[in-house]
Amino acid sequence: MRRALPALALAALFAAFFAAGSFFADPIGLVASAAALRYRSAGALSTFVPGPGGPRLHAWELGRRSAEVPVVLLHGLGAASHYWVNTAIDLARSGRTVIVPDAPGSGKSDPPAPGSGWGIPGRVAAVSALLDALRFRKVDLVGHSLGGWTAGAFALAEPHRVRRLVLVDSAGFTKLDPDAERALRRSLTPGDRAGARRLYDLLFLRKPVPAWGFLVDAFGRTYRQENVVATVAALEEKDGLLGREALLPAGTVFIHGAEDAVCLLSDARKAFALVPKGRLFVVRGTGHDVPLEAPHLFHETLRRVLEEPGPE
Questions:
Q1: pLDDT bracket for residue 310 (50, 70, 90)
Q2: Closest by alpha carbon to 118, among 225, 11, 219, 245?
Q3: pLDDT of the residue at 239
Q4: Residue 263 pLDDT exceeds 70
Q5: Confidence band of 116 (pLDDT split at 50, 70, 90)
Q6: pLDDT at residue number 8
């Protein structure tokens, strides 16, 4: 027994060094792996379905399939289904069926087929294909940032399939002059650590993790991957939600960080005022990522708006 103790200690030490090395080498990948473990521990099913044109889409499915209307959570640019793990588990515990897809080319989903594209129309088509494959007639749709833009565009394209629409720090409502647009596109695909640090500061008012160099480098690498670069290049003003606010579902809810420096609160205020019976919840002291910066308040607000009866 005494001889076994040093061996166990050595194994534990080796495991600790391995985990530390993995964290320094790929911290975001480790976060995604930890989220996958949490999904599985919560009883989630990992599902693959055919996407537009054939490439597979991946999604996590939590909760009872018998729930009347599922909730679909759409992540933003540079993220994947791991972004929503805390929200998904919270909603599933409240009795909801929750579907959390990886957008085309993100997470475990295949890149889009040639012709379907990386832009908003391709993302909308992916949501439609997912709902078709899972045989969901109507859903509550929640989207953050670019996921909010996607959710809004889907609601405009297939309004009969959306019971409630919740837009969180949503993109798609801002019109920039050409110089500002070019600058924003450049900032979303940083080429070095300094650029990655500026983007990190732009996205987060309350930093989820310290801005250590190796973390900032990993963050920058994420925003230089093909799915981000190709998506940024494919975004077009004609696919925006600006000018179509009145056509969004009645009662659409906006949840927005008061200090959001990417999708401005002033634009969200203008948008919600044009939506029939639209509502806006402003979260003070947060930036572009309310679900990560104020999770408890966000989850409480989201549960409440999803439980309320829809507008007549």
A1: low
A2: 225
A3: 96
A4: yes
A5: confident
A6: 45
Q: How far is Cα 189 from Cα 221, in angstroms, rounded to an integer?
A: 9
Tens of pLDDT, residues 167-192: 999 999 998 889 999 999 999 999 99
Chain centre distance of CA 66: 25
* 8 Å CB contact between 265 and 257: yes
The CATH T-level fold of domain 42-189+224-307 is: Rossmann fold (3.40.50)
Res 308: pLDDT: 84
How far is residue 265 from each of residues 53, 84, 157, 232, 269, measured CA to CA in Å? 37, 22, 25, 22, 6
In angstroms, how far is the first alpha carbon of the chain from the final one? Answer: 72
Q: What are the b/e assignments for 77-98, b being 16+ CB within 10 Å? A: bbbbbbbbbbbbbbbbeeebbb
| Domain residue extents for the chain | 42-189+224-307
- Condensed to tens digits (0 to 9), the pLDDT of residues 4-63 reads 445 444 344 333 333 444 445 678 889 999 999 999 999 999 999 999 988 999 999 998
Single-letter residue type at 258: A
- The residue type found at 202 is L
3-state secondary structure of 282: strand
Handedness of CA 290, 295, 299, 301 (dihedral sign): negative
Q: Exposure string (b/e) for 6-25, b if CB count within 10 Å is 16 or more?
A: eeeeeeeeeeeeeeeeeeee
- Let me know: does 62 contact 89? Beta carbons within 8 Å: yes
User: What are the distances in angstroms from CA 3 to CA 7, 8, 46, 167?
Assistant: 7, 9, 42, 59
Cα–Cα distance between 236 and 240 in angstroms, integer? 7
CA 200 – CA 288 distance, rounded (Å) = 10
Please state, in angstroms and as integers, the Cα–Cα distance from residue 127 to each residue in 143, 157, 205, 246, following that order: 12, 11, 30, 22
Structure tokens at 205: 């008012």
What is the percentage of the chain residues whose pLDDT exceeds 70? 90
